[in-house]
Structures
1.
Amino acid sequence: MHATNLPAELHEQVEKLRKEHLLLDPRPREEMNRMVLEAMEDVNREYFIVMVLLGLVTLVALFGAWGYAMYKGLGVAGIRRPIYWGLFIVSFVFWIGISHAGTFVSAILRVFKAEFRRPFTRAAELMTTFGLAGAGLFPLIHLGRTWRFYWMVPYPNQRWLWPNFHSPLVWDFLAINTYLLGSTMYLFLPLIPDLAMARDKSTGWRKILYTILSLGWRGTEEEWRHLQKAIQIFAWAIIPVMFSVHTIVSWDFAVAMKLGWHSTIFGPYFVIGALLSGISAVGFILYMIRVSMKNMRYFIRAEHFDALGKLLLIISMSWAYFFFNEFILEWYGGEHTVKEILRLYTQGAVAPVWWTMVVCNIVVPWAVLWNKNWRRKPWVMALMGVIVNIGMFAERYVIVTGALSRNRIPFDWGWYEPSLVEISIAVGTFALFFFLYGLASRLIPLIPVWEVEEGHHAHELKRMGKGVVVSVAELE
Amino acid sequence: MTREGLTRRDVLKLAGVGGVAAAVLSGCGPLAKHVRRHPYHDMPEYALPGKSVYFATTCRECPAGCGLVVRTVEGRAIKIEGNPNHPVNRGATCARGQAALEGLYNPDRTRGPKQRGGREISWDQAVDAVAAALQETPPEGIAFLLGLAPDHLAELVYEITQALGAPPPLRFGGLAMMEARETLTQAAEAVFGQKALPTFDIARADLVISFGANFMETWLSPVAYAKAYGAMRQGHPGRRGVLVQVEPRMSMTASNADLWLPAKPGTEGLVALALGRLMAEVAGVEAPAPFADVDPAQVAEQAEVPLAKLEKVARYAVEKSESVVAIPGGVVLGYDNGADIARAVLALNALMGDLGKASRVFFTPPAGGQAPLPPASFQDVRSLVDRMKAGKVQVLFIHGVNPVYELPEALGFADALLKVPLVISFSSFDDETARYVTYHLPDHTFLESWGYQRVQVGADREVLSAFQPVVVPVFDTRATADVLLAAVQKVGGALAEAVPYKNEVEFIQKKVADFRGRNDGIYQASNPKLFWAFFLQHGGWWTKEATAEPVQGKVVKVGTDKARFSQGDLHLVVYPHPLLGDGSQANYPWLQETPDPMTTVMWNTWVEINPMTAAKLGLENDDVVRIVSPYGAIEAVVYLYPGIRPDTIAVPMGQGHTALGRWAKDRGANPVALLGAGTNAAGDAAFAGVRVRVYKTGRRHQLARKENVVGVYGDGRRIPVTKHEAEAATSKHQE
Amino acid sequence: MAGGNGHEHTKWVMVIDLDKCNGCNACVTACAMENNVAFTGEEENAYGRGMHWLRVIRYWEGEWPNVRVRYMPMMCQQCSNAPCEPVCPVFATLHSEAEELNIQVYNRCIGTRYCANNCPYIARTFNWFDYEWPEPLNFHLNPDVTVRRRGIMEKCTFCIQRINQGEEQAAAEGREVRDGEIQPACAQACPTEAIVFGNWQDPNSKVRQLAQSQRGFKYLHELGTEPKVIYLASEKHDF
């Protein structure tokens, strides 16, 4: 911030750093406010067309197909004996994975004070909320009798019957709801100052909306103190919830008697898998924001993609470690059916999907992400987001449908192919996610301006000998 | 009901006296001929809501005559069970018997009398038409074609034809064709001196050598044989009977065998003779004539079975067994040397007697000393067709058989039908034959019918098995016997005097009256009404004690003609579908839905091909192939079947209907189209003498299998069952 | 104390003698007719959606010409320690204390199909659609057994309606249930008497005697599911 005091010979170096780092490149608050609001209010024709299309796809492909499935019966899906779970559960696990992005980026990086997080915490948190919205639909969609879903809710009823707390599905139900509630509040808290900012700068219906949403925020010191405290509490609290959610999802499989599922490592393996898909999806979303919204090239820079890339590489390695553990122990166990399952994965009919997973989750990230130049290219990271998520989708597909297609009774082995209705619903959920995200991008400030400003304040360039160093103050 | 002098309470008491364990209760209904059983509204007095009423009757889905107990609730038949006291099935039922309710309540039944073109007529018109036919046709121009069940109708028709001076009714059907009953009867006459179907008491046999007899699927009396099979295996502590099956295609019966010997088609008789010679050698006796004439080593080579196995079987027979049974049947009798094979196999039984083994062959004594009207041979049917073609038949009555579907096209039955001016069908369904008829006067299904069946095979005593209606007729159908009797009365005169019965029930009552005088039956009755009540309540009449005695045969001369086959690459085995039988039950959805025991295929026709042959022909599972014989061609779906000779293919009969109902129509293929009209020496169809060519069509059809389709779809592997997996699945786990 | 038969409770057990079983599938049809099991037609069955509560597993063994076949009727094993039970979120599948059976409460089921995934015997079937019995075929539907609609699981019940009726009958007559009096449809139909059903608590019952056999085993017993179906292994003679 105080770089102006530096001697002239260091200017070049400073300029380079500024160009590089958002937090060393301060702009006046007013200008940043304007930039963010401009991006938010930019509802042009392209945006409109895209949103209408996404909305239509959601309506028809997701809700239309779902209604059809409810009316006709679940037979319209491709599942069959003995593969009773298919693309619905695959999508469910996938979206739960996506939802881990926000919490991880926002809460863990906040707790560990990783400064590069500042401009995109909100973008990531939105992914959590909307990912969960998508994920939360699938346990309902996959029910044979969706209209009775509330029997999983513990409420006092005439039958004097609670849900079965032994069932991982009830754990799921509770965990997902807790996570949805927690992450929504965690999204909302840091949003309050920005909503207040938007309230102050906008007119018309937006003014009314933001007035309501900002809960009368005035920006007093007292308010700030409370807010900071609340965010700190939530940041700490939501982390175990996040871990628990995907662990519980993994228990849907791991506690079962099913060979290929019955694995003690599934908890951490699923969590790391979720992070892998979530973090890589953040890269993709950031790229989309950067190219499609105004003024975003200022906020989202190569350094952010670089940092994400490093994170991704580490997570990919961790995932590979768990994956190897899981595989090698099952293989070593030598159980007949498990051997057949592994044969099916590596050489059998599931092999194309399984090898896609290996390539997308291990080979490609390791080949690309070691290179700083590639990490710094936004489109490369966007592509990585797509590739890794294909890999992670494949992983869930293999685990859910591959393992189910082999069991202890060879007479009853089976084979699964998703039906058009299932594919339609899965695709529809993507549309729903992007639709909600698109809507949110024009309704709430996507960049937490106050957090960025805080970063600006915290960062300082200092002369040390012949060079310049960045010094970061601890604000909280 | 009390007007008959017997109250409901009395009958209930009597039911207790009868001592029938499983609440076999006739109710008061059958006492009065005209009792009606209404569903739900206006229920009969005995039908309490929520309480079941049980009726004993007899199964007519095949001619075996198994006793049934039908559970009815509020006037509806709910479930069929075996009659636990019935000497044939002893409480058991097969899948076909179980599904009979789907025949009773089948939505595709013929709902009332019809004329050609589907125009509905009244029953009065129907009776007029029958009466006119009986009256105006010269007697030799009248022909009756009946099925193998029920016997009472055949006997009534026999009396009518006798009175008219018309030829006696022919009893035939697809199942009869596949069973070659005449061949077996003639061979039995030669070996055992009795012109009847022998019963093989496998329950008490130590070694059973079956030559093609699929006795646990459709052959003669499958439930009785299955029951005996269970007893043979584990019925006697410390002694387990062993089954050896000789046939080209592993049937379900063969799949249970300890040893399956896929002898070359046509050489089964030689194998029997070779076995006999080997047994004699092991016993240290000189083999008698037909056995001495064969050289076992040469036979083994000719039949392509290992000599060592034959020797082992012979040694087991002589050294380890107290009784040995050899059964001829099924496809093996369908070669043109089938008569010789039957004689050779039965002679093997006789030889075993000579070697000091206990005989396990007996003949079911005919009920009341009267054998049922025997089934016709294929030869007889062929001459009927010839007469029809020559225009010598003016009226043809058809009941209980669907000849257009069941008989080979080569016989030309359908064409011959066109030459008959008046064809009257009594079929309960709009079957293939019903398309050719002038009048279609639907009979009740057996669950709505009266009648009886004289058990011919499978029982160790005299059995007259009773039918009685268990529900009120579902549709506007009428008992064929009643239609005929009404017509007879309409004709009047000498005919009515010769056939003096008012209706079906009176006819039956007169026929069973003689049994009241017998004191060896399971019950005695002081008056005819009580006897009738007992008769219905017990599901028939049979003796208290088993009376059948094992018979000792004599070794007879056996011809050694080689079987002749038509031109072609592969032998064709056509066999009755284990569940659909001859196809008359193809419209019962749950019989279609029940997996075939061997292939687990449902709802279609498959062709069984050895995987090695298939590989040679470039065929895969689920390929549609065209099978061409000199007589016809069909298309069927390939099933790679490990249990069949590489030079043989097999197709089940039962599908391929062009009528009959929504679940049967246009489904699969009818392999009978591939068969010729040739006969063996006994006059039975030589249906196994066909060779075929198989052509790939390039199309595929996914067979509905209960087994996994992993070997077929999604994975390149064949049905993935290793020895280990199979053992792990079905063997005892060692701790 | 169910049925007033003097035992603490009844424990229904089935013994299946694989040496007697000839694989004829009569039990399959009998089961369907008793329990209103829907038929689904060729296409659905080809797709692996048969509703059979009971199936006869058939294994091919060996290579030509030494081919052999093994049969094994397989249905819900009514495990004492059933894997399907804990995973159901709504208690639709649970254990009955009276009969010691696994009960499927159709009205309670919401169709998560988790129980089916967790069943090592693949014994459960799912109603993919609403299936129909065109009139008058529906006349033979058993009034003692619920007709299931789309979206719920079903499975073999050991013909619990017959057990209940038999016990009530015995209680009404003030006596114990006689051995062999209660039979599920499969056992009653079985032409070879391979399937025997009875009360384990009755020391003289036929099932108890048969279970003494050296050939007895419980399928997948190593999983600790404690099935109530005891198989007697087949022992073919080798020539």
2.
Amino acid sequence: MQKDPLIKVDNVKKYFGSTKAVDGISLQIEKGEFVALLGPNGAGKTTLVEMIEGIQKPDKGEISIKGLLWGKNDKEIREVIGLSLQETHFIDKLRVDETLALFASFYSLPKSRIETALEMVGLEVKRKTYTKNLSGGQKQKLALGIAFLNQPEILLLDEPTTGLDPSARREVWDILMNMKREFNTAMILTTHYMEEASYLCKRIIMVDKGKVLARGTLEQLLAEYKNGEIINFEVDSGIDEKVFKELGHYLSINLQENNKKGEIIVESLVNYMPALLKYIEQKSLKLSAIECRKMTLDDLFITLTGRHLTE
Amino acid sequence: MNQLYQLFIVEIKEYIREPGALFWSILFPILLALGLGMAFSGSSEQDRTIAVVCSSGCDNNTLVPKNETSTKIGNEKIGYTTFKFQYTDWNQAVQMLKQGKTSLVLKPYPNDSISYHFDPANADAKLSYLMLSDYFSNKPIKESEIEVLKQEGTRYVDFLVPGILAMGIMMSCMWGISYRTVDRRNKKLLRRMVATPMKKANYVIAQIGSNILTGAIEASLLVLVTHWVFDIRITGSFVGLVLMFLAGNIFFSGLAWLVASRTSKTQIANGLINLVVMPMMIMSGIYFSYHNFPDFMISVIKFLPLTILADNIRSLFLEGTGINHVLPPFVILSGIGILLFAIGIRVYKWY
């Protein structure tokens, strides 16, 4: 008999009036797998995660967790899930350890789990602090500590680092990587930060307007859709578009401001770049800006939708 | 770790760590009882200003004292009232009435006739009129025919304390439970909690249980302080009082649960709570007897939950009522409270 996947989402749809929040998404997640749902605000990521959490009911399709279904096996599913919401506030005048003790009691866990959770998220020194006196990053760590209390097989994290400064974001990432290493937890993470998706997750699912745009590892995505490198330049006088073709092979070009500025996506930077610089030198053009970089998920998203991820 | 115990402890900790809540639920009712109790049982010396409007020839009136003079009327038994006569014109007198500086306008005429102008619905004005008209027609108050009642249970403060106790039960349930619920829903904490295997029944029991415990402390302190200051006593069944206290808590917790079952906005919750609480505070005879309302209103007021609670607590305090007397209201209030809970839980929004 074939074993059930840890999470199976099968052609799930959820409409709010005329808005198609989730419009036929399917996915499977196995034990220990970290998967990112990457997409801009309003893409349907949160709705999808809420359906997996059992908070929303799909209009169509089915979601099963370890072969169990919401509405039939709620308690069993809740036992194996840990989650953190987009924003969580706690009881203001309850201390960190008291908040953890409250949630630990919901899972009938021993007191020692509070210590493990505190250690895991690095809040040992804050154990006696009222939650209202925690910083944004510390609150998010506490939310992760709570999500982790029952050492769940599945973590569902809805934008866990939105609004955090870069160093707090790094710390959250480290905590999550630790969880994965030590407990082989599976995770679905929603985010609109491509660095977050590519740092934490092997598999990335790009979502927009309730549909899956693309899925795969970072390398697969970039290779499949447009493997390339990007040159951004700016000169003081326009260059005829024909010239760029003569200089070498490129995948796409986007010129602006009477051809004084542009973005060229090329297969190989090493082949194209010297020719371009030589041309600029020959024509005595003044180069005011030049930048070369690898293609990113944001570039891919723009290619697919014409919009930025962070819009 | 035990779930119900943790939920209960969290409710208690949240309560005792909030100085504002402690003030309003414990100190404020005691201060109110002390303040009002003293205001209405203190010195019987009173001062009243009477506006006098003088038309032509009024100088010939020998009865009404001259401008800015005072007359003391009364005796040792009923206390004294000092009337101060202030001469003015009609417009000014009306102004004084509007500002509450006087409640009675006198117009002296020649040949010692006087007309009195006042609102008969104003008890204070009516009393001033009766005292002055008797005084001017030379009918002194007969001290010998007055016997001052000093029996316990007939003072204003005896009436007041059970009322404040009943109101305290309503207030701590309505504000305590509703406010905490809406706050937690707003913070998405309820949503986070129900995403765990927490038993919802435990959450509800912890809320009511903690409210009963803190309410019992509030009520005990109120009774102890007023016993010490005013010698307030419970003359009826103590068990009956405990039953009424429980019934009040069950009823108003149920009502609070229903009122806070949907909204996540504090302003809306405030409005809803006030809508429920204010009419009862005014009409249910907490500070003053509701028997002064017109008869058709009394027949409604008598069935308001706070009236039922206050009337029964009052009779347990003052009339020596036995437990049998409070069993029917106990059953009715608790029963309706449980029903309200049942409805509230059905429509309750956890997220």
